[in-house]
Amino acid sequence: MKWKWAGVSGFMRSGMVTQCYNPVVTPDSGINMKAVWRGTVIAESEDTVIVEGNHYFPLASVNAALLEPSAHTSVCPWKGTANYYSLKVNDERNVNAVWYYAEPKDAARQIKGRVAFWKGVSVVA
What we know:
This protein is mainly β. It has a single domain (3-124), classed as Metal Binding Protein, Guanine Nucleotide Exchange Factor, Chain A (Beta Complex). The protein has no helices and 13 strands. The strands form four sheets. Strands 7-8-12-11-10-9 form a six-stranded antiparallel β-sheet, with no helix packed on it. A three-stranded antiparallel β-sheet has the order 6-5-13, with no helix packed on it. A hairpin with a 2-residue loop joins β2 and β3.
């Protein structure tokens, strides 16, 4: 597999700013990735973009029936304002476990229309 280096980064989540040099990378060949929570596949795609160690999945690859809109936002100095979804699987909720940048800054244009996961959501090959 070949990797394309596309930048360096710093980010803010929950009010903390972290400077890091984890590059934005885009795999040249697809690896089928899954986002799984409580045994349920939330998203699956061979087309993920990796930023700061997080796989950003195309929104079309996400099971939209499991997403609930959230009013929560956070700000990243180089990506812009992040918006969130909560997950609802069966009767369990994972609040603000999914984030996306509706209008990312130019440096993060590769993640427009994509979502990433945290808060116990496993991303596996």
